[in-house]
Amino acid sequence: MSRCVFLDRDGVLNKDNPNYTYTIENFEILPGVVEALSMLKKAGYLLVVVTNQSGIDKGIYTIDQMKECHAYLQQVCDGAIDHFYFSPYHRTLHASLLTKPGTLMFEKAIARFGIDADQSWMVGDRSRDLIPARSLGIRTIQIGDEVEEEHRGDFKVHSLLEAAQLMLKYK
Ligand SMILES: [Mg+2]
To answer: What is the topology classification, in CATH, of domain 4-170?
Structure first.
């Protein structure tokens, strides 16, 4: 069984823009992220991104534009990320269990990679990131203060680097 760190994208790996992030020019990788991913990788964690990209459904950007951003991220972090799952749906247009807080992106990863949920983590900055993880028995770390009180993470930190240090301590 694999141990996995599930990662939200916007607000965890790159700066969250209110108007969506879909060009490399606007894809600002947050401080310490490259180092954090490298540390987790070396510790043997599978790294899986689970991201809602509802701007695709709204016609604001294309899947190809999103993939260019992901290719750029992979280039910068030396291919550390094992897989990207994304939901292109916007809840007002298409209901989908893929869209967080739905669990389907997580469940796909668990089935595909043989992930042990109990030995895995989710790092996110919103309630919708932590709700599905918790329901599957995955430990949760919240970054920042945007998570609602009733959904707060098992741990709270300020950056992915801090989260990585915490996970490695629990290894
Ligand atoms: Mg986010």
So the answer is: Rossmann fold (3.40.50)
